[in-house]
Amino acid sequence: MTTDFASRVRGCLLGGALGDQLGYAVEFSRWDQIQERFGPDGLRDFSQLDSPGHISDDTQLTLYTVDALVEALEWANGGTAADETALLWLAYLRWYAGQEGAFPESAPEPAPRWIDAQPVLKQRRAPGKACLSALATGDMGTLARPLNPQSKGCGSVMRSAPFGLLPFVTPETVYTFAVNGSALTHGHPAAHHGAAAFASLIRLLVHENADLAGAASAVLSRAEQETSAPELAARLRAAIDLAGQGAVAPAELTAALGEGWVAEEALAVALYAVLVTEGSTTPEEHFRSALAIAINHDGDSDSTGSIAGNILGAFYGEAALPPSWMDAAEAREVVLGMAARFLAQTEAPV
Question: Where on this chain does Mg(2+) 1 bind (predicted)?
């Protein structure tokens, strides 16, 4: 693969981790509390924090998604087909065991992999209730046998960027992988199609060289076909329309798009942040400006920050990542380690 592709992979994963880490510092704070702590413009840089802070479960689960795809590619490159969704489930079970100290009683115990030896991925960083409760059953959630049937939390979306990084697969394959991956823990159609919309957006940026507006429009068109999740298309359209009006205050942002706790809201807030700041002078300035909007609001700041960081990292590659932020990154070597393992398996068609 080209250097550009490698840079986009690293940029996507590192950008998401940076957005997650900065946003996690204010995840459970209201906008007025953020202003009281950091000033009228809110949190905009790691230098405003007493310590660099931490990644959350968003980055942890994103990297476990990468690891499952790496394992599937390892099998494929060896000439053997594998069930990608089953490998995702086993990967998420390994994450669960790191969080809880043991596998669910009735679940299989897959052999450990490199990722499982990374202490930062075992730290408990406000893991989502739906993810934990679904995995705790020891059952593999599917579209036909849903777990948490009413749950459409953003935990289904924030871990799904890696599907869009996969080369040599069709757009529909990416969509299907993301839908089935979401169904492992979340049962609501908005969770499934929100995850797939996000993965599809990443694919368009990385593999089709789409521009941001074009990718957003294409993802909206696909979402409008999914009658089981009308709220997804409604939020995506609202995000695109709001960005066209220019920057709005955080209160107006959440009033229009939601706080980001559920799938369609998290994707909409992040997409708005990315689109409304387009036209910044440099990729790094675009990244900084978008992340400032993505995390400074009432709501799920780490997830909206993570998704926005994934998008711009995929679009620009590593050129978007502020060097001082990279110096503050908690899990930089772990993220780069997973990126390297992914890239090692995608050097030739499988």
Answer: 56-58, 300, 303
